[in-house]
Amino acid sequence: MQPTEGELVILQVLWSDGPSTVRAVNERLNAESEREIGYTTTLKLMQLMLSKGLVSRDDSTRTHVYAAELPREKAQQNLLQRFVDSTFGGSAGSLVLRALGEGQTSPEELAAIKQLIKQLENEASND
Q: Which residues form the signal peptide (predicted)?
């Protein structure tokens, strides 16, 4: 299940802060947003996310605590694949070339990319 943009924002809060109440998520969203987000809007969205299986809810106390069920890595993988498919015709190489061609890559990031390329080359030669 792919999260919507609004759901993804809530998941970001839950991934960074861990299990949280609706109030805590709503306060965090409002602290980071230019416009006010109502508590009931956050509650409704989190209830929809619960029905989709994106979050779980602990009902053992009066204040319900929600936790992310969709791992961050899985969401990133799905969103990236969708983006690569729709924007770069499925070519991860085109995405990488475009990103690196923008000239905003730090020396540390370039070193990590080179290391990953070496690793991928070694894996390919071992197949």
A: none
Tell me the domain boundaries of the chain: 5-68, 91-127
The SS3 call for residue 67 is strand
118 three-state secondary structure: helix
| Cα distance between residue 114 and residue 103, in whole Å | 16
Assign domain 5-68 one CATH number from 2.60.40.1190, 3.40.1010.10, 1.20.1540.10, 1.10.10.10. Answer: 1.10.10.10
- Are 54 and 3 spatial neighbours (Cβ–Cβ below 8 Å)? yes
- One-letter amino acid at 46 equals M
The CA distance from 110 to 43, in Å, is 42
Confirm if 61 and 20 have CB atoms less than 8 A apart: no
For the stretch 31-73, pLDDT in tens is: 998 999 999 999 999 999 999 999 999 999 889 999 999 999 9
pLDDT digits (tens, 9 = 90+) for 19-33: 999 999 999 999 998
